[in-house]
Specification:
With 468 residues, the protein is of the alpha/beta class. Helix content is 43%, strand content 14%. The protein is globular and about 60 Å long.
């Protein structure tokens, strides 16, 4: 099966066959490893990954060559350079290059150096981090905040730090990996409910409480899910938790600061500000820096997490420059400028969603900085991602198991500093790439439908066995 491919300067390569193994399979195929050779048993994954890389079908581990602004340059991990409109960076209010934020980081470096040089449980705090704890608490209507070096560590740490082996964790099936991994580290009593399904959550809680009236239950959701861009009924979950004496934890990573007139995201839009038991979040989407937090009303919870939440206790604290950057970002978020940036962001989001619809591209979720565009089959999506890079658009491809199988998508991330020309360019290039990918993949899809294709791990394992 032959296919014409184009390199990034638009010229045609020699026609060649796209291996069907590069268009099928997923990272899930290589998750369960067996055998005594800890090093050798990861080779099948690399064989599959590198096959995709050789055909420019591995779209991960890109590196930016410029600041992550609305126009940027990036290099793939195979060395292919792309420069053009950038809808792949998480900088929703365009604050990472804001002059005031950069100035705050520089001033902090001049005062403190570049490193916190310790865990916050020891000597890693600075006046910036202590002030940031107060600012986050005030913004959310809570009394206390615990800072973490990353958003991921905050999500993992709050579950691992508070939940014990006999306790229960109930979460939306699409809850972020940091929360799921934290639950795995804490207890075997992990329960899931259907995505956004409050009735199913109630049924699960009723069953858990009927069997275990004594131990704690932590219920976890996200205010806006990053892969689907949809949002749960937060008040409904809150009421269910009260009914069954469960603790509600809400992850606000993708809407805090950037959604709503005041920047309180779905917490504000759903009148839930101050009503959840614990709020966790990340600074890396809107607030221009790595770092995360857990907000609570209880000083006891704050102190406990500082010494029993492993990713807090045994990690170096946020650097002075990071904490100072987030402080300045919060000042902007709470100002008239911040409100204007949120309105600009939402204007961009609504315009992008409308134009994608006109181009007959399927968009999911509710308006927010993340705009998922469903493509479908993984093979077709991989070809479309390659073609978009050739056409000078930088986007992120998301595949199973991060999203359902056969439901691959581009996760577009919108910035306040995008403009209509950027959006028009992206939609035009995306429509072209998707159309061309559908045509190119069609024969492969027919072959897949007609034959049972072994998974890449089985093929690679068979090759390994034959070699030995």
């Amino acid at each position: 099966m032959k296919a014409m491919t184009k390199n990034c300067n638009g010229s045609s390569d020699t026609p060649g066959e796209l291996p069907i193994e590069a268009l099928t399979g997923s990272v899930r195929d290589f998750q369960e490893l067996r055998g005594s050779d800890l090093i050798g048993r990861v080779q099948p994954f690399f064989d599959w990954q590198d096959l995709r890389r050789q055909h420019d079908l591995w779209s991960y581990s890109k590196a930016t060559n410029t600041a992550p602004t609305s126009h940027s340059a990036a290099t793939s991990d195979s060395g292919v350079r792309t420069a053009g409109v950038n809808f792949a960076s998480q900088d929703y209010l365009s604050l990472s290059s804001h002059e005031a934020v950069k100035a705050a980081a520089k001033a902090a470096i001049d005062e403190y150096g570049v490193h916190s040089a310790g865990s916050s449980a020891l000597l890693g705090n600075t006046r910036f981090s202590l002030q940031l704890e107060q600012v986050v608490s005030e913004f959310l209507g809570f009394e206390h905040t615990v800072l973490y070096p990353t958003g991921w560590s905050a999500g993992f740490g709050v579950v691992q730090g508070l939940v014990r082996p006999d306790d229960h964790v109930l979460m939306d099936i699409l809850t972020h990996s940091c929360l799921q991994e934290g639950a795995k580290a804490a207890t075997r009593n992990i329960h899931f409910h259907g995505h956004l399904n409050v009735d199913r959550a109630r049924q699960r809680l009723a069953r858990i409480r009927a069997n275990d009236p004594n131990n704690a239950i932590m219920v976890i959701t996200e205010s806006q899910f990053s892969m689907h861009a949809d949002t749960p009924d937060l008040r409904g979950l809150h009421d269910v938790c009260r009914e069954y004496n469960a603790l509600l934890v809400i992850d606000v990573a993708h809407d805090l600061g950037c959604v709503g007139e005041t920047g309180h995201g779905q917490l504000g839009l759903q009148n839930m500000l101050g009503d959840a038991d614990l709020i966790i979040g990340s600074f890396s989407k809107t607030f221009a820096s790595n770092g995360g937090f857990v907000a609570t009303r209880s000083r006891a919870v704050k102190e406990y997490l500082k010494y029993y939440s492993a990713t807090q206790t045994f990690s170096n604290a946020m650097s002075p420059a990071q904490a100072a950057s987030v402080l300045q970002a919060f000042e902007i978020v709470r100002s008239d400028e911040g409100a204007a940036l949120r309105r600009k962001l939402m204007d961009n989001v609504l315009y992008l969603r409308a134009e994608l619809g006109k181009a007959r591209l399927e968009v999911t979720g509710v308006p927010g900085a993340v705009v998922p565009v469903n493509i479908g089959t993984e093979g077709s999506a991989r070809i479309a991602a390659r073609r978009l890079a050739e056409l000078a658009a930088i986007v992120n491809l998301v595949e199973y198991p991060a999203v359902p199988k056969g439901n691959a998508r581009f996760r577009l991330q919108v910035m306040a500093n995008h403009n209509k020309k950027d959006i028009d360019t992206l939609v035009r290039l995306m429509a072209t790439a998707v159309k061309e990918a559908e045509v190119l993949f069609r024969p492969y899809g027919q072959e897949l439908a007609a034959t049972a294709i072994p998974t890449p791990i089985r093929q690679s394992a068979a090759r390994q066995s034959a070699a030995t």
